[in-house]
Amino acid sequence: MSSKFLAELSNDYEKLFETEIGYDVIIYAGEEQNVKEIHAHSNILCARSQYFRTAFSNEWAKKENGKFILRKQNISPHLFDIILRFLYCGNIELKNLQGPVVLNLLIAVDELNIHSLITYIQEYLIEHQTELLHQNPTGILEIVYQHETFTDLWNFCLENICEEPKVLFNSDNFINLKAPLLELLLKRDDLYMDEIEIWDNLLKWCFTQQNIMNDPTKWSKDDIIKIERSLHRFIPLIRFYDIKPTEFFYKVYCYKDILPQDLIHDLLEFHIVPDKKHKTNLPPSRKQYLKLDSNLVEPNLIPLFASWINRKESSYYDKKDIPYKFKLLHRSNRDGIDTKSFHRNCDDKGATIWIAKIKNSTKLVGGYNPLDWNGDGWKNTSDSFLFSFADWKNISNATTKLSYINSGKTWAVYCNNNFGPQMGDLYYSNSNNWTYLGQSEYYPNLDIPKIITILDYEVFQVIKK
């Protein structure tokens, strides 16, 4: 029979760190006025980190009066204290630290080669400090790019910038972005920007880097040579054939002196000679980035949902003009069918849209609540709606039913901890079995059975961009 007293062991090692009994390591952390002397035990540090095993080896070690001496000017005393406490007792608390401090901590643990913390801190930043990327996208990208172990954070940054490029391209520091990073971004097929916007931003970056005006009529021969050299690596990455004719003429052709002449010839031929057979090795168009974390519907329904929310029933949004993001809050197969789980995940989240798959059927049903799900009782709104799809794999106007709440009705949305997403006379309570009374005074003209068994349903927060 074995017993585990890990908490007691952790506390004892933390006390050892704090009391400093028998220490044989002196660490000078920080620089100038912020230097602090920290005491530790070499056997514990070596057991927990390859960095310290190397630092205290015969080749590296510096000793004074029998104690190892280590100077780390680039790591603050506060961060070193956090790291050492983790090495001693296996505990770390990040929630009270600001995003930039957590990032500096990640850099420090990477230098000290503490692999478990590298993964853990990256996950924390991705889950809890996403605003950090919005505050300083250029700086964050450059920091993450310099550390090859920050793989998760690097992928997260790239994916988020590709999804919302304006975070980076509209920032004040974009013009200072290093060329290799800009090249990596322009290579991406999922960079969600119009190609002409990418070209405009590339020129802005180039002209600023070279300190040259953007007026071609005022360029000298030296200016043209500088710009050509600066743009050379990027020109193959621009999908010029995806730029509209008018934009090509006014925003690309006017810079013909800095572009390869064969490219200009081919582009002119492409726009002027419609029946001409064009090259087959053209770079692919960039993907239209629509993101929806759903097991029930494809991202191509996002324009439809956004159009219904803004009552654009006949003229739907283009994929590039969608004013909303849809963030998954609740999935019944993952989070539970019970109403407590629904309210725990969806209350106080504002507007939501939900979608449910009917068991043994091709039908989908769903609804939009522009208010919220917290509270107790009926809520009135003129903007809520229910919808149904006869075939979730073949969605068309003929198989789609949409119904806004009847004007003046006070039974648009019902909120109660014992019920899930009840709207009008469609409701459920702690079960896969839902009821639809079909009374036309609430949401008329829907194609929904009166008794339905739900296979799975999902709820998405509707966030205005």
Task: Write a structural description.
Helix 8 (137-145) runs antiparallel to helix 9 and helix 12 (195-210) packs across helix 13. It contains 18 helices and 14 strands. It has helices spanning 6-19, 42-48, 50-55, 77-89, 99-111, 115-128, 131-135, 137-145, 151-163, 166-169, 179-186, 195-210, 221-231, 245-252, 261-272, 302-309, 332-335, 339-346; strands at 25-29, 36-40, 63-64, 67-72, 324-331, 352-358, 364-369, 377-379, 385-389, 400-404, 413-415, 426-427, 433-436, 451-464. The strands form three sheets. Strands 5, 6, 7, 9, 10, 12, 13 and 14 form an eight-stranded antiparallel β-sheet that branches. A four-stranded mixed β-sheet has the order 2-1-4-3. A two-stranded antiparallel ribbon has the order 8-11. It starts with 5 loop residues before the first helix and ends with a strand. With 465 residues, the chain is α+β, with helices and mostly antiparallel strands. A hairpin with a 5-residue loop joins strand 6 and strand 7. Among the domains are: 1-91, 2-Layer Sandwich (Potassium Channel Kv1.1, Chain A); 299-464, no CATH class. The chain is flat and about 90 Å long. 37% of the residues lie in helices and 16% in strands.
Rg computed from alpha carbons, rounded to a whole number of angstroms: 30 Å
Mean pLDDT: 89
Helices, by number, come to 18
Strand content: 15-25%
Structural class per helix/strand content? alpha+beta
Globular, elongated, flat, extended or rod-shaped: what is the shape?
A: flat
- Main sheet specs: 8 strands, antiparallel
Total E-strand runs:
14
Distance, first to last CA: 58 Å
Uncertain runs with pLDDT below 50, 5 residues or more? none
Task: Kindly state the percentage of residues in helix.
Answer: 25-40%
Pfam families: BTB, TLD
InterPro entries: BTB-POZ/Galectin-3-binding, BTB/POZ_dom, SKP1/BTB/POZ_sf, TLDc_dom
